[in-house]
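haha ok so turns out i had the wrong file open the whole time. this is the CORRECT one, sorry everyone. sequence first:
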Amino acid sequence: MKKILFFLSLVIVLSCKSQNKKNMSSLIDNHSETFNLNAYPEINKLESINKKTDSGFIEIMKNKSNFSYKFTPDNSLFKIVKVYHLNRNIQSKGLTLNLPWTTFPKGTWYEFNENGKLIKEIDYDKPYKFTFEDILKFCEKEGIPLTKGPVLQSTGFHTTITRRIEKEKPIWEIEWKKKFNIVESIILDGTSGKIISRRESEFINN
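then structure:
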C-alpha cells in the first residue's frame, strides 16, 4: 500500500512540474500580434496604467514611439514584456525577472518590423552554461530569499539577479540583504558556476 501511495505521489509531482514547464514555455512565442486597445481605452488619455488583476499585475505605458505592456503573474519570478509599434503591431517580446528595475532578458526574445513580421530571434540564455535554474539552486543552498509575484517600487530591498558578458566571459551577479545593514554581492562564473568573488557593503535605507 505504501509503495502504491508513493508511486501516485511521484506521478502527481512529475505531472505538476511538467505542466509548470509547459506553461512557462508557452508565455512567449514568435507569432505576430496586435495590442488590444479596446481592452485598455484609458491609455488614450493617460501615459501609464497600473492595474492589479486576479492573476497578477499589469503595467502599460505609452510614449511618442511605442506602447509597452508588462504582466507579472502571481507567484512568479518572471515578467512578460511586450512592446508595440504605434500602429499597435508587436515590436518585441520576451521575459525578464519580476523586479521593477532592469535585470536581464530571459530566454528567447523576438523582434518584429512595423508590419508585424518577425525579423530577429535572440537567445539570451545561450552563453550561460550555468543556467538561471542553477542560480535558483545556488540561492536555495545559500539561504538567499527571492520575491515571487509583482514587485512594486518603494517596497524595500529585494534580492537582485543580473548577468552580463565581461571580458568575453559570461558572469552572474547576485545582490541580497545578508543582514539588516549588510548587502552581499556574489559574482559567479556563467559557465562553471564557480564563485569569483564575494563582497559585503553597508546597506543604507533611503
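The helical segments are 2-25, 132-142.
again sry for the mixup
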